[in-house]
Design a protein that fits this description.
With about 375 residues, the protein is mostly helical. The protein has one domain: Growth Hormone, Chain: A. It contains 17 helices and no strands. The chain is globular, with a radius of gyration of 20 Å. The N and C termini lie far apart (about 40 Å). InterPro entries: MFS_trans_sf. It comes from Paragemmobacter straminiformis. Keywords: Membrane, Transmembrane, Transmembrane helix. This is MFS transporter.
């Protein structure tokens, strides 16, 4: 009973972490564009730098997870993220902005999904899918929290107050809740798992496997598709002529759609293999930009886009650690997931400047067309995988 509550605590902490350290860019980008006299490339460089820092740290942190240090990481991460947000508030200049995002990248690597899932895989092994689903059901609501809360606070008191609220949430709520949950779960890790951590598998041996390469390409393409769209939802909706209220409501739909997608996967249970679930996800990911394209003429379709985009990414969030553990082994999950994160994070980093360039050059329609092409590339990767 106590451990079940601890998993819910981790889930709540992950939701707050993603809202405060990740979705804050997408939630506040419109206010930065309107209120800061900076080139758009500077704003886009922030999350790009964060992702680059996270990518560099991911393999090292993965090794730490395999060695049983997930609790330390999940506890220290919120402090690092809060400090970075503090820099964002007090040093309102391009240099301060970029430094803050570098700190947020470190926080993302230390205390979000990969470390949390690594702890759950160490604790439950092949049965971790159930607890991973539990965490993602709650954490998937992060965008639902970040978009309306960020917009409401920034509209009334300015973006700096919105960031200060995020600092308070990270330190006052996320930190104690997540630290407690991680400690309780870690106490249940079997002794043989802790002994395995002493065996080090070379990086080269991991990346040389064909299954690793194919999965890495797949996750990278899906990340590029998703974050190119998510980072610029508000400016894109603005350019498509959607009313501000509709735009915020549609953006906030992505989170619940992630939860619904995960519930569908959970309901299917053992009746749906990982490969079939992957094909279902790809169909959804391809359909999403089609809905977005036609929502310019029929605005209600934007909610169909948000539902499909959220559901696809929601399911893949569960499938990613499951596929890594199934195809590449549970005993080295932390190191493998850390290496696997690099191409996905690089794709996420590229998504911000790529989206900004496409938006400036051809408007939202060019961004949507590119998202569709990338989705087709992900379908090819799945076909190659299995």
């Amino acid at each position: 009973m106590r451990e079940r509550a601890a998993v819910w605590a981790l889930a709540f902490g992950q939701m707050l972490g993603y809202a405060c350290f990740f979705y804050i860019f997408a939630a506040l980008i419109l206010y930065w564009q309107q209120g800061l006299d900076w080139p758009h490339w500077v704003l886009a460089a922030g999350p790009t730098l964060a992702i680059a820092v996270s990518a560099v740290l991911a393999p090292v942190i993965g090794r730490r997870v395999d060695r049983g240090q997930a609790v330390v990481l999940l506890t220290a991460g919120p402090l690092v993220g809060a400090a970075a947000l503090g820099v964002l508030v007090v040093w309102v200049a391009p240099v301060g902005y970029l430094l803050a995002w570098a700190g947020l990248g470190a926080a993302q690597a230390m205390c979000l999904y990969d470390v949390c899932f690594g702890l759950l895989v160490r604790r439950h092994g092949a049965a971790a899918r159930a607890t991973i689903t539990q965490v993602t059901l709650v954490a998937g609501l992060a965008s639902t929290l970040a978009f309306p809360a960020g917009a409401w606070i920034a509209d009334h008191w300015g973006w700096q107050v919105a960031v200060r609220v995020a600092i308070f949430v990270a330190v006052g709520v996320m930190l104690p809740v997540q630290a407690w949950g991680a400690r309780v779960v870690a106490r249940g890790v079997p002794d043989e798992v802790s002994q395995r951590a002493r065996r080090v598998i070379p990086w080269r041996a991991i990346v040389a496997e064909r299954a690793f390469v194919r999965l890495a390409v797949l996750f990278a393409l899906v990340n590029l598709n998703h974050w190119m769209l998510m980072n610029y939802l508000r400016p894109m909706f603005d350019g498509m002529g959607l009313a501000a209220g509709v735009a915020v409501a549609a953006a906030a739909t992505v989170g619940p759609a992630q939860v619904i997608g995960r519930l569908v996967l959970m309901g299917a249970g053992g009746r749906m293999s990982s490969l079939w679930a992957l094909w279902f996800t790809m169909a959804v990911v391809v359909a999403a930009p089609v809905f977005l394209w036609f929502s310019g003429g029929l605005h209600v379709l934007v909610f169909g886009f948000a539902a499909l985009q959220g559901a696809g990414m929601g399911i893949l969030t569960i499938l990613r650690p499951v596929l890594v553990a199934e195809r590449l082994g549970q005993e080295r999950y932390g190191a493998t997931a850390g290496l696997m994160a690099i191409p996905g994070l690089v794709a996420s980093a590229v998504s911000a400047p790529l989206g900004a360039g496409l938006l400036a050059f051809g408007g939202p329609w060019l961004v949507i067309a590119m998202a569709f092409v990338i989705a087709l590339g992900a379908v090819w990767a799945v076909a190659s995988e299995g």
